[in-house]
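Issue 218. Parser rejects a valid record. Input:
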Amino acid sequence: MKKALVLILAIFMACGMLFAQAASEQAEAWPTRDISCYIHSNQGGGTDSWVRFLTPILEEELGVKITCTNLAGAKGGQAATKVYSAAHDGYSLLGTSETSMFYGSNDVGPTADKWNFYIAAGSAGIIVTTKDSRYKTIQELVEAAKANPDTIKIGNSGVGKGWHCKAILFEQGAGVKFKHVPYSGSGPALTALLSGEVDAVSCSTGEVAEYVRGGMVIPLVITENRSEKMEGYGEVPSAVALYPDTAFGLSNLFQFLGFTLPDDTPQYILDKFGAAFDKAMKDPRTIKFAEDQIATIYDLKGEDAKKLTTNMQQVCWWLAQDLGLAVVSPEKAGIPRP
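Output the parser choked on:
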């Protein structure tokens, strides 16, 4: 009887080990089904363009389809919350940008420490107007704003987000007051510009590159610490060169585009996605796309991406606070001033 019990126990243990091994092998075979990617902005902006460009290349390496859906609500928080609320099994992916650095200050989604970032690239910030605008230079726009405060309408991708902050930093440096008009992404903001709803838009060079090449849009100023040469126009001046007091904010708040997975996603999934991401970033198609988007390729993940986003969230949170845009103060969140 005793020998029979021992035998039965041994059989159960062996079966358990086999089941555990099978489960482990099945898990590490990720992905075995399609992946859903939720983009935290509307169609037509930089995040949407880069995510939709990269996902087919990632599919080639991962062997499954990645279905992209735009969820632009709550200043990007709707998509972030959906991904973070789902199982952290690699099948829900967030298409993101530097907007995620404002999740905490806007109180809309999990903060940077809750994510693993895969940072692809980014383009410079810019303020543009249309070819039919009465303002052909940034100096003309600034003079008009000085003469008529709070009347020059500048569109942005959303209150308390990067392009809104950049436009405020610029107006402070220039000593003027614009009327800021928010939209749910740079795509809708540019549509508003072309239809005459606003006088100018704060966005990225990548988002307007084709419009500039086609002569539909005039670049006025680069909201960075450097100038930028744009095909179809020429050299666009730097806001920092014109107004040095803007240097800290405009230099430390910059665009990045890519993906995130929740921080506690199993490591083998993070590693496999990271390998596919690295391969996609080195692909000649990506290099050409970056050139067309006037973008710098970053190709950051792991600790490098964690360090960048931790520092950038700190800067962005305090910028939002100082500009009067933070819903939650950085002090309350325990974020030290940079």
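Fixed in the parser; the record now loads. Residues 1-30 form one domain.
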